[in-house]
Amino acid sequence: MDILSLFIIVPILTVVALVFSKTLERSRVIAMIGSIIQAAMAINLVFAYLKERAVNDDIMVFTKDVVWFKNFNIHYNIGVDGISVALLALTAIVVLAGVFISWKMKELPKEFFISLIVLSLGVYGVFISIDLFTLFVFFEIAVIPMYLLIGIWGSGPREYSAMKLTLMLMGASAILLVGILGIYFNSNADGGPLTFNILDIAQVNIPIAAQKLFFPLVFVGFAVISALFPFHTWSPDGHASAPTAVSMLHAGVLMKLGGYGVFRVAMYLLPAGALHWSWFFIILAAFGVVYGAFAAIKQTDLKYINAYASVSHLGLVLFALLTLNKIAWNGAMIQSLSHGLLTALFFALIGMIYGRTHTRDVAKLGGMMKILPFIGAIYVITGLAYLGLPGFSGFVAEMNIFVGAFQQPDMFNRILTIIVVSSIVVTAVYILRLVGKVMMGPLLINEVTDLPKATWYEKTGLLLLMIPVIAIGVVPFWLSDIIMKSLEPFIQGVL
Amino acid sequence: MDISYIILVPFIPLAVFILLGLFNQKIKPAVSGYIGVLGLLVSSSLSFYAAYQYFFVSGKMDGVYQTFIEKAVWMKFTETLQIDMGILVDPISVMMLVVVSVVSLMVHIYSRGYMKGDDGYTRFFSFLSLFTFSMYGLVLATNLFQIYIFWELVGVSSFLLIGYYYTKPSAVAAAKKAFIVTRFADFGFLVGILIVGFTTGTFDFETLNAVSPEGGSLLLNWASTSFMGLSVITWALILIFMGGAGKSAMLPFHIWLPDAMEGPTPVSALIHAATMVVAGVFLVARLFPMFYFVEDGFALNIVAYVGAISSLFAAIIAITQNDIKRVLAFSTMSQLGYMMLALGVSGYEGHEGLGYMASMFHLFTHAMFKALLFLGAGSVIHAVHSNYLKDMGGLRKYMPITNITFLIASLAIAGVPPFAGFWSKDEILVAAFENNILIYCSSVFVAGLTAFYMFRIYFGIFWSKEKAYDHAPKESPLSMTFPLLFLALLSIVVGFIPFSEFVTSDKIGFEAHLNYPLAAIATTVGLIGIVLAWAFYKKENSLSDKYANAFGALYRWAYDKFYFDEIYLFITKNIIFKWISAPFAKFDRKYVDGTMVGIGNKTVWTSEKIKGLQSGRVQDYAFSFIAGAVVLALVFIYLWTN
Questions:
Q1: Range of the domain at A196
Q2: B244: Cβ contacts below 8 Å, ≥ 6 apart
Q3: Which of A443, B101, B139, B568: disulfide with B47, CB 3.0–4.6 Å?
């Protein structure tokens, strides 16, 4: 069995094992073992990739090609480059942490863990696919469990939120499908057969008119899941209603599919379209960055704050991609990872606070540091990392994005960049407001004076996420090298 | 010169921080205090050794102090544009190493007494170590990005230490304010860095500062692109100075510094008096050739005026404040203004560069006596449990050591010979006199004000009328008085260091002479200030109230700090929160989300309306079928006939 297909097989086997488990104890152990294996595979993949990359100069390595549906030339065609390897590792870490955080899931644990693992399967699939159609199928597999996870295990107006989220993402998928088919039917422009293979299509000169027509469809189709303004409103409601692990996976991993898709499909296959449209979408993205940050200041629900913060920080990813600059792209990829880890941390922490105090209202919380020192400390560190403090991943990502975006010498890009840079101030405002209110200040939680301390599984989950944040922040050149090398063929295609 | 061992200087405090941070709960308070002091003792020894080596043994070549650099790539953007991490050893960085080491070591020792019995003792020492690490990193930085990185790290250490008493709402608010205000200034700093990076293709100080007085260097070529009448490099320098003004509490970014006094007093001494707040001055000094040569020093003029105005502004406010730490905070701001204006009026070569030398000299002496003042104030606060002048008086009987050391520091800052402040302030006044008479006059006036407000609090605390204390105040323990005595000794002797031999803008030593007429003027003004303070405050009397009333509105204005806080509050609360944030949040829910929900609802509504078509009655379907067939037939006939 090849190293990549295991990322599909292992989740399937885990799901099968889960189907036969009876109790909470057994389900969570199975889910834990399954996700530990995945994480081990991901780490192994990173090293295997580095070794392979040293001798192999192809764009994608570990490729495998099986014809899946002959009439339309659809293949199960897989392979990875540095970017997908990094994102796979992120996914594995977040899934594992998510399982630890859901250790005490009481309601229908078996079904919960099954949905969680299926979701991760879809995400892995997207990251390893080279075939557009396969990629789309995995994309849908990742989105569907979300409906169940929020609708069944959620809180508050969960049916409403689940419905809103699913309908908006499905609407985007419909647009995306049109775009993908548009690419497919133009993939014979140079005389070859119609194909879904991304690498092959990239060599084809798709007519400019078609590129201009389909780029917005593919871009918006993917960007909705990255909460592009104004299509982001599913995210606050969705996050607020979702159970902890689901918020983590959703913000941490699923929303990354958007930026990844924009980069891998929209930018790479439709470069002329990207050049034609970038001015428009970059305004939306830059506006989203500032808009999300300002909107976050005024929220009172912890999860809403983070949902809007995600609009802002993922806006930064889209912004960076649209600057069409290599350094900024590097920053976009690091930002994807960084935001994934940090948001997962935030949602995990919010889950722990909510589980103990039964409230997410900022006004009702205060001075938690005193009674929850471990959770409090991690919360403060996460907050500081989120606002781009050097030494953590967020800083590395932001600086790459800013420096890259600033390399475009025209006034239009300059002004947008400066507007986007100003978000570091606004981010500091809402993060410090949050930290200052919830963690510091006088104790104020429904007259409670003592709460259960963090348990071993909670600590494990948090540390799993925190370690890579610090690692990327302290030694960025390692990750940066892997990503930069993989960006090379793409940037040549686009520029 | 071998400089590799200097790398250890920042890393030892970092190791202490990690150790104390990770095992916060497990380490006994007493032990953590020792670990902190010991770690810093090693770092300080290395710094002193480095200073000795650099200044007296192997730093000089042909009469010019050399720059030694050791660095490694940390993040690569393009082939040339990259962020390095490393250490840069030149006169000002070595001088700063000494300043940071001395003050930080004294503050560490002092804190063992001051923080005794506090819940967060270990946390306190770990944050102190984090700060010291960041500050060492800042002064040793080799490029703009590295300095920015450590700039942010000292900012966050400051945040953590101001908010050290985190259950106190005022401390939390002050910590937030400090971080956000400086962050706003850093936004300018960062944009400035980006501009420099783009236009010059490098962040390295070494390359950026390679400007020769003859012109024609690379930097001046870059300076030719202009934007709104100024070259882009000048814009970049102004933006970079904005960052410096934020950290050094210059107008209009000074509002965080008085509030930062919410932190424990040793922190105020270390961070908000001696080290972090001089980072802005250090930044301008670090980029001095750029500031001086680009567009004939346009940006440098701004530095001079901002410094002079801040200095005067803060000194006026300091007279009216009743919280002794706030008086000292405004005093710090005023002295930082001195350093800035000295840089601003400075030339480049030889005696022309007197301002630069004076600024660094004053930075050095000010660090000693201001740290001493803060630690002395801490000792007083420790004894009477209040920050307010009204709760103090007659303490000289109870606290002899604090009294005498505070007096020495006050004399030093007031510029009375032969104390340290006299020498450095004199050089600043000479530099100002030779270049800008307006700034000179304002500086002399500030010197008088300084003497007055310092002796106002000195007499208020140690003389005046004895207050009814709950229990008799007593002198602080040795751990606290030792740093006081040590710093007092330094406040006397450091003025005699021939600074112009060591730290100059062109790195070539020159001989500076005392300018007797100017020194006499300055000293006289200072003595007048002291005498006035003596008349007003030595004994409790109504003279001060009378004069306060006589000045009426001006006094009120100064007492309320010229309403800067209110202006900022108005901008943040009323403009940003009320007119930007709240409408955004509302707009999002009501219109953006409303549209999406509306689309959903319309879909449901449409299907409600048309679901009647599927009625299940055969006659309805038959009718539709026939009607459809008729319409189609008509269409076809129509098409056919045309």
A1: 6-494
A2: B185, B189, B250, B279, B280, B281, B283, B284
A3: B101
